Amino acid sequence: MVEAPHVAAVLRSFTASPSLWLQHLALGHPCCSPELLLRTGSGPDFQLRGLLLRHPRCPADILSDFSTHKNHRYRENVASNPNCPGSVLAGLARDAEQAVRAAVAANRSAPPAVLESLSRDSSPWVVAKTAANPATPPGTLARLVGDGNGAYWCSLAANPACPQVILIQLARSGSPDVQGRVAANPAAGTALLIWLLAGASGPHRPANETEVLQGTAGNPNCPGYLLTAFSRHPQAAVRRAVPRNPACGTVLLRVLASDTDALVREGVAQHPRTPVVVLSRLASDQAVGVRFGVARNRTTPSDLLERLAQDPDSRVRDALTDNPACPLPALTRLLTDPYRTVRLKTLLHPNCSAVPVRETALKICNSPAGKNIPAVLRDLAHHPGFPPHLKTMIACDKMRGLPC
Question: Which segments of the chain have a pLDDT < 50?
């Protein structure tokens, strides 16, 4: 999400609030500045510290300081941070707690030498995390598959950076779980996918299990004629993978939009290629998950997003606050949403400018309910566009002990 000028001011106001909930909301935001992270996350609250240490903008020196903290949960947070220096990760790779080492093994910023070392760890969990890491050197991946230990094969098969030659070895394993992950791996070529579907010869059993069908249906390298066949498959689990395939075309999306399975329609609602006429129909779908998908889709037209701002389910309205394409009229309505989380997240939307906040605040004050300084008005006060004289009125009512 693009950082707008007002977002920093709203985050600053949230961190200055005595409410821990608002502070958590601020530190969980990707645009929270290092200054606010340090000021708010350096206190005694365990969860705030965790948010600080996991945040990508956490300063490297803070990560270094907490890498030796006695609480292993803090060390685990440091180990999972993508901004963590390689030297710190190298030290954490030798940590006594396997959860900390596993976090290092899953960190894409870990140096190759560190990942090579962790691939020989005594904990199978740590080794599996290393096998799944796209930053792990190809030579290390080749050694792991050559060890013959099937415990790591699923992790290797799911690694998007796994070389094709290793994926072919794994495809011959005969394990439906491993083959299913190979089929879903975007690094698997079209020929390998067809081979998996056709089944292997000799001692290997046919690879036509549901896992392989699902993986192939969702793979961007799946040929179009196979996607068409999968869209008609009797198993809903296979059809669900088709609209989640980035290569799925508009013709199939139109067909799948009428599927009896709600999860299939939900995949169509989220796809960037779904035609507007289909999105318009799905915006009125009975299933909440389908409407949720339309609300999150960045290609959904503004008029549909405005309509979804009136959706009876708060989850759909909340999804709009995460959509960068949400238009100003929809955001204006969400500023007075009955759910506080929706209102506060709306203030952090990049399109939520000062004008709708000011106009909404004045409109509330001119209504009969405005005399009681409702909760909506207090939430709007976190935005820099909120009228200054109304902030003074709120402060005075608090001093007099009036409900506000």
Answer: 1, 200-207, 370-372, 399-404
Number of H helices, E strands in the chain: 29, 0
Measured CA to CA, the distance from residue 80 to residue 67 in angstroms comes to 11
DSSP per position, 120-135:
T-S-HHHHHHHHH-TT
DSSP 207: -
Handedness of CA 132, 133, 138, 143 (dihedral sign): negative
Cα gap 388→235, rounded to integer Å: 59
Q: What is the DSSP string of 70-96?
A: S-HHHHHHHHH-TT--HHHHHHHTT-S
For the chain, the helix, strand and coil percentages under 3-state DSSP, each to the nearest 5:
60, 0, 40
Bin 148: left if φ > 0, else alpha if -120 < ψ < 50, else beta: left
Q: Are 394 and 388 in contact (CB under 8 A)?
A: no
Beta-carbon count within 10 A of 261 CB:
15
The chain-wide mean pLDDT, for the chain, equals: 92
Q: How far is CA 377 from CA 12, 300, 329, 361, 383, in A?
A: 18, 30, 18, 6, 11
In tens, the pLDDT along 146-176 reads 877 778 999 999 999 999 999 999 999 888 8
> Of 151, 157, 152, which is closest to residue 172 (Cα–Cα)?
157
Report the predicted TM-score, pTM, of the whole model to 2 decimal places.
Answer: 0.89
Rounded CA-CA distance 228/314 in Å is: 35
DSSP letter assigned to residue 260: S
Under CATH, to which class is 249-326 assigned?
A: mainly alpha
Each residue of 314-324: b (16+ CB within 10 Å) or e? eebbbbbbebe
Tell me the two tokens of residue 208.
């036509």
- Nearest CA to 60 out of 78, 74, 72, 47 is that of 78
User: How many of the other CB atoms lie within 10 Å of CB of 224?
Assistant: 12
